[in-house]
Every structure is written in C-alpha cells, then in structure tokens.
Specification:
Blueprint (H helix, E strand, L loop, with lengths): L15 H13 L1 H28 L2 E2 L7 E2 L3 H7 L2 H34 L4 H9 L6 H11 L6 H7 L15 H27 L3 H8 L4 H12 L1 H16 L3 H6 L11 H10 L4 H34 L1
Antiparallel strand pairs: 1-2
Helix pairs in contact: 3-14, 4-8, 4-11, 11-14, 13-14
Length: 314
C-alpha cells in the first residue's frame, strides 16, 4: 500500500507565459522597468534635461545670435555686482513678507470663524476657494481692468463717496500694495483650507480640561490651538515662501514690473533678461541663484520651525 503524498502546488506545471512574467517580476524586474519607461522618459524630457541644459548654459555667454561660448563662472560673478538683480531681490522680499504675514493671519482668523459658526460653513469655504480655481494671469488681468484709472470699477465705487480717482497700477507707491492685495485675495483660500482641516482634527479633551480649569478662549488659543497647529504653520510656510520668492504671473498680468522697476521681482527680471535682452547664459545663472536662495530659505524654515513644530505635535 502506497503512502499518501499530498499534492505540491509549487510543482504544478504553469503555462510558459506565466513563468516568464514571474521571472521578469522576480529576478530581473525587466517588466517593471518597461512599464515605468514611458513616464521616466517624459520626466527626463520635461524636467531633468532642461535642468541640466540650463545649468550648462549658465556657464556660457550666449545671446541667441552668436554660438555659446564657455566663460566659466563669470555670469555668477556678474550677478554679485548687478544692481538690477539685487534691486529685484529687494522688491521680491518687499512683496513676499507682507503678503505671507497677511495671508497667514487672515487665513487662520477666517478658519477660526468658520469653525465656530456651522451655518453656511460649506458655502463660505466654497466661495473663499473660488480664486484658487482660476488661472493667476487671468485673475491679474481682471484686476488690472478693475483698477483702471479711467473706467475701473474700484475708482467708480470710491467716486460714489467723493474720493478722487487713484492710479492704482501706475503709481510707484501703490503698485506694490495692489500686488499684495491681489495675491492675498487669490491664495488666502489655501490657508483657510489647511487651517480648517487642522482645527477639525484637534482633540476635544485638552480644551475641555482647560475650560474646566478656567482658561479663557484667548488662553486656549495661545497655549493649546497654536502649539498643536504648529506643524501646519510649517507646511504653509514652506509652500508659500517658495512660491512667493518666484512670483511671476500676477506681476506680468497686473503691473508688468512697473511703473519703472517698482514691482520687478526676480522671476520677472530673469524673464526680461531672457526674452528682451536675449542673454540666455546670464538669465540661466540668475535662475539658479534664485533656486539657491529658495532652497536656503526652505532649509532655514525647516531648521528653525520644522523640528520644533514636529516635537510640539508629538
């Protein structure tokens, strides 16, 4: 009598194509790379190659008319003494700091109000988020029409109360505040969305204990809400600081960098150098300097706020 031998599933014969697929997935992973190849080719073509090529061009003297000529680091040395570049850097800082402070303060305040009032909360959030759905250049062009000196709706409204017309866009003093207001209106919905999600996720127990101990609403905000939301403030600071340093679209649509160079940010300066001046090599070097400045700012934010925020959240 033969002993019973259980069937071994591992020895069951499989079709040849299944063994081949198993071999590709297990050993050589050839199939995995073949499936990833189209996406990798696209990423290399639209991201990696332009980065490498622009880095190479930053060491060249090239103005489209004459062939590229290697000049080493002279483009970067020229940036160090270029007053126009550093003026644009100052303009960028003058735009970025007040915009960030206002939009974060306003966004957090609006999120607190929406969290306390449940009626119409969804409708209000949808209205606040509408500007995020539009193209920034289109928004800037619309605001340019609204702020027009002759037929703009803003001057018409202030004229109803006896205030004279204001040259919002073409005044060197008022052009920058107009840009700040436009950017705050356009992006404050992002802060409202992030902080609303954070407030909704906060635990109730610490606030109930604080209320029993007699803590006021202001004390709960300072000692409970803000520390627990610090990681969100770090995330907002990282995203918005990087975007504000390289702002271009609303400047192009609203002021065109003017009047004069009053609102010429770094990105707009690089654009003018490339498109109007045909200085491809110098513009490439300026773009990498802007990238380095953005990277340093992000690392500083992570170093100063990031670790503290994460420890607080834990």
């Amino acid at each position: 009598m033969q002993a019973y031998q259980p069937a071994r599933s591992s020895t069951i014969a499989r079709p040849g194509w299944q063994r081949q697929v198993q071999h590709w997935l297990g050993a050589d992973r050839t199939l995995s790379w073949l499936l990833l190849a189209p996406a990798l080719i696209v990423i290399f073509g639209v991201f990696v190659y332009p980065l490498i090529y622009s880095l190479w061009m930053s060491f060249q003297a090239y103005n489209i008319v004459t062939p590229p000529r290697f000049i080493g680091t002279r483009n970067y040395e020229r940036i160090l003494t270029d007053e126009t570049f550093w003026h644009s850097a100052l303009v960028t800082i003058q735009f970025a700091i007040p915009t960030f402070v206002i939009e974060v303060t306003l966004g957090f305040g609006m999120a607190l109000l929406l969290e306390q009032h449940t009626r119409g909360r969804g409708v209000m959030r949808s209205i606040i988020l509408l500007p995020l759905l539009l193209t920034p250049v289109v928004e800037a062009l619309n605001w340019r029409v609204m702020l027009n000196y002759d037929f703009g709706v803003v001057n018409w409204l202030i004229g109803l109360v006896g205030i004279p017309k204001v040259n919002w866009v073409n005044d060197a003093v008022l052009a920058m505040p107009a840009l700040v207001v436009l950017e705050v209106w356009r992006v404050v919905g992002f802060e409202v969305l992030v902080f609303s999600a954070g407030l909704a996720a906060l635990p109730h127990e610490p606030f109930e204990s604080a209320e029993i101990d007699g803590a006021s609403s202001w004390q709960q905000l300072i000692y409970l809400t803000l520390p627990m939301l610090m990681p969100l403030f770090v995330v907002v600071a990282l995203f918005r600081s990087y975007e504000l340093l390289r702002v271009f679209d609303i400047v192009y649509g609203l002021t065109g960098g003017g009047p004069g160079r009053a609102t010429e940010t770094l990105s707009f300066h690089i654009f003018n150098t490339m498109i109007s001046g045909f200085q491809v090599g110098y513009a490439s070097a300026a773009a990498y300097v802007l990238f380095a400045m953005s990277l340093v700012l992000v690392l500083v934010i992570i170093k100063v706020l990031g670790l503290g925020g994460l420890e607080t959240s834990e």
